[in-house]
Amino acid sequence: MFSGRTPFLIGFLACIAAIGTALAYFQHYLGLEPCPLCIFQRISVMVVGVIFLIALVHNPAGTGRRIYGALLSLASLAGIGIAARHLWLQYGTHEELSCGGTLDFMLENDPLMKVVADVFRGTGDCGEIVWSLFGISIPGWTLLFLLGMLFLSLGILFGRRS
CA 48: distance to chain centroid? Predict the structure, then answer.
């Protein structure tokens, strides 16, 4: 199951579908503007997708395959951390959340490290639940998606060596 190019193709196509859903459905069809943490989650899914694409083209074996599996696992874990933080902001009681500006505004007016710290501190936009399915908000679905990518990555890392 985890041999050859197949897992890299599956992972890449899944990431394309996730980003396509975020852009075409949530942002353009429903008109939901992404908050800063949503943008970071999209970036993490794109990074995972790019690693899957590079591995698909490279078609590594042995140690190279394990390296891609490790890189994919780390990128997935980073995205999982971002999504978990976002869920914590959404479902916790955080009176201190401020409205904050858009990510573009923050990047234009503040140093990068301050922007990153502010984004992870949370904004009112990040704490608001604007859509859910089966009681799970968008970052919850992103977390589940990235857990799937982590499972696939671990299968590549520890699966049959080919």
Answer: 8
